[in-house]
Amino acid sequence: MAVVELADLPAACPPNTPFVGLDLGEKTIGVAVSDLTRTIASPAQLIRKTKFTDDAKALFRLMDERGATGVVIGLPLNMDGSEGPRAQSCRAFGRNLQRLRDVPVAFWDERLSTSAVERFLIEDLDLNRKRRANVIDRTAAAFILQGALDRLKAGFSA
């Protein structure tokens, strides 16, 4: 299966199955999972990066446990909308996932998601640096997935 546009992701997956959202960092992968109605995203897990195949196995294990059928990967675009090395790395991650399993993958613009989440964790939850480090990537993944879910619910005609 090829990478799909976000608008086409629901049709590429069985109904009433969750999606996973990924925030790909240098050392970790934040993972979030939606509910069955694909309305609410929740932080799920943090995968510490080792080798790609091991990382993919951990992700697929979580997807199997949750019954998830689609993947939304945060795409870190530059502020002008162009793609730099990090965005290209995220696209390569998605393609490599598909080489291991036929799973629909879509990308979602994640500009400023980590910054927004960090600001929330500091200002609203008053978490110290150590506690933030333990939750920021999973929470950023939920922020990314929630943005994609909200966009799907709103439709693409607007």
TrEMBL record:
Q: Which Pfam families match?
A: RuvX
Keyword vocabulary terms for this entry = Cytoplasm, Hydrolase, Nuclease, Ribosome biogenesis
Source superkingdom: Bacteria
Listed InterPro entries: RNaseH-like_sf (IPR012337), YqgF (IPR005227), YqgF/RNaseH-like_dom (IPR006641), YqgF/RNaseH-like_dom_sf (IPR037027)
Coarsely, its chief localization is cytoplasm
- Which positions fall inside the YqgF/RNase H-like domain? 17-117
Assigned EC number: 3.1.-.-
Localization recorded for this chain is: Cytoplasm
HAMAP family named in the record: Nuclease_YqgF
Q: What does this protein do?
A: Could be a nuclease involved in processing of the 5'-end of pre-16S rRNA.
Concerning its family, UniProt says: Belongs to the YqgF HJR family.
* Protein's name in the database: Putative pre-16S rRNA nuclease
Native source species: Peiella sedimenti
